Amino acid sequence: MPSTESSPSANRLIAALPRKDRQRFLAGCAPVELVFAEVLAKPGTLIAHVYFPTESSISLTTPTDACASLEVSMVGDEGMLGTTLILGVDISPLHAVVQGAGPALRMDTARFRRELTTSTTLQREVKRYLYVTMNQMAQTAACARLHVVEKRLARWLLMTHDRAHSDEFYVTHEFLAYMLGVRRVGVTMAATSLQKRKLISYSRGRITVLDRVGLEAAACACYAADKAAYTRIMA
Fold it and tell me: HSE-up of 153 (CA within 13 Å, CB side)?
């Protein structure tokens, strides 16, 4: 069982709970190790568990046609998977796949619903986070329609960097193409351009962020808009 003193800080939603609520909440969580590309939820299926990433990240995607999908949101230690439960809906609207392997906390749906009725702070934080997620989805929709692949890739790398707890993370061009909803050749060209500018290095599926400031300058304005919305609402 995770320590009630060290674990809350690893997920910001849990850390926001009052001490008593936090200890009770953690008692109902199980530590799990998420595996890269593991599917945690599928559209139209019942939500069996909610997940609170600590040193991992989850991509939420929606199908665009029979063989392609688009990432619409990303979950790291700032949030959770399963926010629709606050609306009384226990059906997953999106496909959830592990993007960054690592530890997380998991709670079964029934226990989480009980916690929602017990803690007004938890209700407030989850509602705010749901708003932030909706804002991120809207921003991503506009980004996919209006911005070139290189700027979108820079934004995606920054979002992943924020949640990776490391300057280096594993991701293939195939996975990036799947997340961005573009052809692999487009991702290869965009990644090559960022690498030539010495913003990142890429080798054998390992991406290293070399110049964070430069990468922010290369990204579209959507990245800054996402961060501003999170700070404004969650603060």
Answer: 28
Pairing of strands 30-34, 68-75: unpaired
Say what the pTM is. Answer: 0.91
Q: What are phi and psi for residue 46, nearest 5 degrees? A: -65, 140
Extract the tokens encoding 13: 């939603």
The residue extents of the domains of the chain are: 8-143, 148-219
At the topology level of CATH, where does 8-143 sit? Answer: Jelly Rolls (2.60.120)
Q: Is 49 helix (H, G, I), strand (E, B) or coil?
A: strand
Question: Can you tell me whether residue 166 is helix, strand or coil?
Answer: coil
One digit per residue, the tens of pLDDT, for the chain of length 235 reads 333 344 444 899 999 999 999 999 999 999 999 999 999 999 999 999 999 999 999 999 987 776 667 899 999 999 999 999 999 999 999 999 999 999 999 999 999 999 999 999 999 999 999 999 999 999 999 998 899 999 999 999 999 999 998 999 998 888 888 888 888 999 999 999 999 999 999 988 899 999 999 999 999 999 999 999 999 999 7
148-219: CATH topology: Arc Repressor Mutant, subunit A (1.10.10)
DSSP single-letter state for residue 87: G
With CA atoms as reference, report the closest residue to 130 among 193, 181, 88.
88
Q: Are 171 and 163 in contact (CB under 8 A)?
A: no
Instruction: Give the full edge-to-edge strand order of the sheet including 49-53.
Output: 30-34, 102-108, 49-53
